């Protein structure tokens, strides 16, 4: 392996400087650089690692893109895009919040809201001007966002009352809740419409309520 290098080494005094120079030049002309095996192995390792990393990155990107595309096409929303998809995914409709909930989400105050007017249940209409009452088929289409129904003012106000109750239940129970249940703009809207209605009450200026005792035991 190292025979080429030995050509340039000689005992001192055995040959003239000229002959040594000629042989030395010949040795340099015949000499070829030895490959650095450790360097080549290192380079190949780096290239291999980079190649594997690129392939993994491409595969992951393709998987995410495919998964995102499938979700957006079929079940982009937690409960799908129709009532049939929602039911097939185990979701149930919350009329208080007008939304489909997955099975792990509690329906705060929805049951109380639904029976708030047992003697005179609310009516929903397909046309607010002709007062045409919505049929079962209209409700099915509404649940698929194909038509819009119209409700009575008393239902709207009752909804706001029980929405506040649902927030109280969420605080009480400390459980799961959906973003729509605690949307501040929605709560602010309910405050305004309730006050608007209450100010029209004939007893608005009536004296009927005693102030509560001042509490000193509260903390936060």
TrEMBL record:
TM ranges are 41-63
* Keyword terms, alphabetized: Membrane, Transmembrane, Transmembrane helix
Under InterPro entries, the record lists:
Phomopsin_biosynth_assoc
Task: Tell me where on the tree of life, at the top rank, the source sits.
Answer: Eukaryota
Q: What is this protein called?
A: Uncharacterized protein
């Amino acid at each position: 392996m190292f025979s080429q290098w030995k050509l340039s080494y000689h005992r001192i005094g055995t040959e003239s400087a000229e002959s040594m120079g000629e042989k030395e030049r010949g040795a340099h002309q015949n000499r070829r650089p030895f490959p650095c095996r450790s360097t080549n192995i290192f380079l190949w390792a780096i290239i291999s690692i980079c190649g594997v990393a690129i392939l993994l990155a491409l595969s992951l990107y393709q998987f995410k893109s495919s998964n995102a595309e499938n979700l957006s096409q079929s079940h982009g929303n937690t409960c799908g895009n129709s009532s049939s998809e929602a039911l097939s995914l185990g979701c149930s409709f919350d009329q208080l919040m007008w939304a489909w909930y997955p099975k792990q989400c509690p329906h705060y105050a929805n049951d109380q809201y639904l029976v708030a007017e047992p003697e005179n249940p609310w009516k929903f209409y397909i046309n607010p001007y002709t007062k045409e009452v919505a049929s079962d088929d209209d409700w099915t289409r509404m649940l698929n966002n194909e038509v819009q129904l119209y409700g009575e003012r008393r239902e709207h106000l009752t909804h706001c009352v029980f929405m506040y109750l649902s927030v109280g239940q969420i605080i009480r129970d400390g459980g799961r809740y959906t973003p729509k249940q605690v949307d501040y703009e929605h709560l602010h809207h309910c405050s305004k419409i309730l006050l608007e209605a209450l100010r029209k009450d004939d007893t608005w200026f009536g004296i009927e309520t005693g102030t509560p005792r001042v509490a000193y035991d509260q903390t936060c």
